[in-house]
Amino acid sequence: MLPICIGIIICIVLFGSILTRSPKQNFLSSIKPYDENSGWSPPDFTEVPPDSVGDLIRYGKELISNTSFYLGSQGIISSITNGMNCQNCHIDAGTRNFANPFSAVAATYPKYRDRSGRIESIEFRVNECLQRSLNGKPIDSLSYEMRAFVAYLKWVGQGVPKDVKPKGSSTLTLAYLNTAADTAKGKIVYVNECQRCHGINGEGVLTADKKNYSYPPVWGDHSFNVSAGMYRLSGLAGFIKSSMPFDKAKEAPFLTDEEAWDVAAYISSQQRTVKIFAEDWPDISKKPVDYPFGPYADSFSQIQHKYGPFLSMKKIKKAETNLPAH
Ligand code: HEC
Ligand code: HEC
Questions:
Q1: Closest residue CA from atom 11 of ligand 2
Q2: CATH code assigned at 193
Q3: Is residue 15 part of a domain?
Q4: Which bin fits 92, alpha (ψ -120 to 50), beta or left (φ > 0)?
Q5: pLDDT tens digits, one per residue of 76-92
Q6: Phi, psi torsion values for 254, nearest 5 degrees
Q7: Residue whose CA is closest, atom 9 of ligand 2?
Q8: Does the pLDDT value for residue 300 go beyond 90?
Q9: Are residues 83 and 194 in the same domain?
């Protein structure tokens, strides 16, 4: 009698676990769900499954870490980018909080974005970074490479519930200064703190085989173009504050807010590729205060939209949106 009972119990348990183990749940089982108090942490990369789904995720991570090897000027797949890597700005393959991590991507896309005025898929968003941050060409949504990017992005963000944007999913948000960011002071910060890696002309340092950068360019023809998110001062200053100088800001920010704004202004004042997407910001009233290209819905100058002071603009913009419609 007892062996039969035990047999039946084992059968029930086994059958139950087969029923609940849909591939997706199995995939999620080792992931800590996102908890706002302890913050976002990425899943353990060693747990990527050893199958073809896992191969796609691993290739996606490779493409993000070593983009230039695959898609740079001597890329083995194609040569469609400026030689930068995605992780130059999405540090540690997009797993480091406040360094543009990919924590919110799986949970929030597809989503509506004011810049394009449309609902963007993950593929569309990746192609935006390819065309702007990597000053390159878009890739086919069905290509193996795009499927790999998307597989990795979904894998990294899988612990985050739908529509939740985890803390630290972009960069540190710096308070606006009362004054305009100062390019002259920024140059001093650059020379003292950045030049030893990014070069006297912001050109970065290539590896010996010239296929990759040890230190990526921060301006010039091989850097991101003027339509990249990084070109907006708040994004650049926030990234610099949270992540640069690379060696000194690993544990905690190193620069003051003012230094971060000023050095961002200095970098922004230097030459880089001008590639304008005429379809951006179809509703000009949605342009952020630090978007440096007109036409504008307000009367502030282009130069103020580039370097600030942003605080007064923000207050006026807010007051205007609060006016009753007439
Ligand atoms: C020059 C810096 C830079 C490079 C290089 C770069 N990106 Fe980005 N990327 C950004 C910035 C800045 C954002 C905007 C972050 C935000 O809005 O919080 C962004 C946003 C994204 C997003 C949306 C994130 C979100 O939460 O909405 C995805 C996906 C993305 N990038 C993928 C890529 C991929 C893939 C590559 C390489 C092909 C790449 N990026 C290269 C700077 C860069
Ligand atoms: C010790 C070397 C080092 C120093 C010093 C340093 N960086 Fe970086 N920086 C890097 C590396 C390496 C990356 C790319 C990170 C990666 O790929 O993991 C990077 C990336 C960047 C990026 C994003 C990618 C790009 O090329 O636009 C910006 C912007 C940047 N640094 C600005 C600065 C500024 C401003 C300073 C000075 C305050 C600075 N860095 C100091 C090493 C350094």
A1: 215
A2: 1.10.760.10
A3: no
A4: left
A5: 999 999 999 999 999 99
A6: -110, -40
A7: 246
A8: yes
A9: no
- In sequence order, the 6+-apart residues with CB closer than 8 A to the CB of 301 are none
**How many separate domains does the chain show?**
2
pLDDT at 22 over 80: no
Indicate if 125 and 184 belong to the same structural domain.
no
Higher-pLDDT residue of 20, 225: 225
Is the Cα torsion angle 177, 183, 188, 189 positive or negative in sign? positive
Query: What is the chain's mean pLDDT, rounded?
Result: 91
Q: Which two tokens stand for residue 39?
A: 């913050």
- Domain end point (choices 127, 156, 185): 156
**pLDDT class for 37, splitting at 50, 70, 90?**
confident
Give the structural domain span for 71: 45-156
- Which segment of 24-28, 143-147, 209-213, 317-321 scores lowest on mean pLDDT? 24-28
Ligand nearest to the CA of 220: 2
Mutate to test the pocket of ligand 1, among 100, 141, 155 (most ligand atoms within 8 A of CB): 100
Q: Which residues line ligand 1 (CB under 6 A)?
A: 64, 67, 84, 86, 88-90, 100, 104-105, 125-126, 129-130, 133-134, 149, 153, 169-170, 224, 228-230, 235
| Digit-coded pLDDT (tens) for 169-201 | 999 999 999 999 999 999 999 999 999 999 999
Residues 233 and 147 placed together within one structural domain of the fold: no
In sequence order, the 6+-apart residues with CB closer than 8 A to the CB of 48 are: 54, 57, 58, 155
80 part of a folded domain: yes
Residues 183 and 298 in one domain: yes
- Establish if 30 belongs to a structural domain: no
- Does 64 share its domain with 192? no
